[in-house]
Amino acid sequence: MGRGDGSGRIVSGPDADDTGTRILHVDMDAFYPSVEVLDDPSLAGKPLIVGGMEGRGVVSSASYEARRFGVRSAMSVGRALQLCPQAIVVMPRFHRYSALSAQVMAIFRDITPLVEPLSIDEAFLDVGGARRLWGTPGAIARMVRRRVQEETGLTCSVGVAATKHVAKIASTLSKPDGLLIVSEPDTAAFLARLPVGALWGVGPKAVEALESRGIRLVSDLLATPQPVLDRALGPAMGSRVAQLARGNDPRSVQTAHVEKSVGHEETFLEDIADTGTLRSELRRLADRVAARLRDGGWETRTVSLKLRYTDFTTLTRSMSLPEPTNVGQRIGDVAIELFSKLELTQPVRLIGVRAEKLVGGGGGGMALWDDDEDWRRIDTALDDARTRFGRGAVTRASTLGPRRDVNALPTNPRPAPE
Prior knowledge:
By secondary structure, the protein is α+β, with helices and mostly antiparallel strands. The chain has helices at about 30-40, 65, 75-85, 95-110, 130-135, 135-150, 165-175, 185-190, 205-210, 220, 225-235, 235-245, 275-295, 330-340, 375-390; strands at about 25-30, 50, 60, 90, 115-120, 120-125, 155-160, 180, 260-270, 300-310, 315-325, 350-360, 405-410. Among the domains are: about 190-245, Orthogonal Bundle (DNA polymerase, domain 1); about 260-410, DNA polymerase, Y-family, little finger domain (Dna Ligase, domain 1, 2-Layer Sandwich), CATH 3.30.1490.100. α7 (about 165-175) links the parallel β7 (about 155-160) and β8 (about 180). The two termini are about 35 Å apart.
């Protein structure tokens, strides 16, 4: 597989065979750092970290120059600067990233209506029906890359294949600023030489379980009896991985995005041991999560708490709700209840709240009475105030005080709405 620092990339030549292909996976190259370079060309070619305040924040993304020193997303900025002391740290600007993401997604939809955004900086495109307009999948992929660069100033990498799974692998191998086409007849040979960790869903623990049995490459996996895979990975995953290894992936491009979860978390300027302060921060985060749920027309059936201690030990706890909700008070109550059941053994570095198992607003059905009616009215008033005056214009009195977080960030920023 290609490396996260851009070394070892594989790209296709101008006459690459695209027989049997129709799926493109387009992935922007080091998107956040690339946007920063676009807006400030003096940063070009320098190791760049997009993240929180130096020493306390978390790396959201890093330029390829920084990645070559071992800097990775989700690493503490302090650790990143140990690996790459000369790196430049900039705070993330999600509004700017979202605006450029919307521009990129508009380019995709101008080429085909079958676009499935995966995140703010990547998407699947089904171009099978666009051939009459734009040519072969390979030609369309080249057009996508050209238009993105000409219209936004950013580069992207594209994988072209018969399935989503193989297209995503191909785009990863071609990064940065590359194109890799895997024809349908070449798919089996392409997959066979890859490490097992390249397959979708095969994480570090699964890789360890497979490698302990001498299964290192996809070709090894193909030669392994199914019962052995089932014992190593479990029957469900063993069966799925065996299908992916053979190039079988029935998933189609889904144009309607279904949000799976909404979360916010923050890393503190200084580790916090005071339970009252932590409860206040949970209220703040719960209100932000609830506001995003309401904006998207969602309610949550499960609330999850994330807590990271000074030594980076991370705990997660979750609770299912009797009725789905998007009320900040209710989500905060559950988060605080989960927190109260934890033994605070050391100061806290990071805390987060996540809404999971989302359903459409009103999905819980009509109740005879609404225990949260008063809180809903308050949330509505807060939403109106935020719309008129901006986020933070109105907040709970209990959350007032000096800023304690390095950066309270959404854990799954989405593209801007069309």
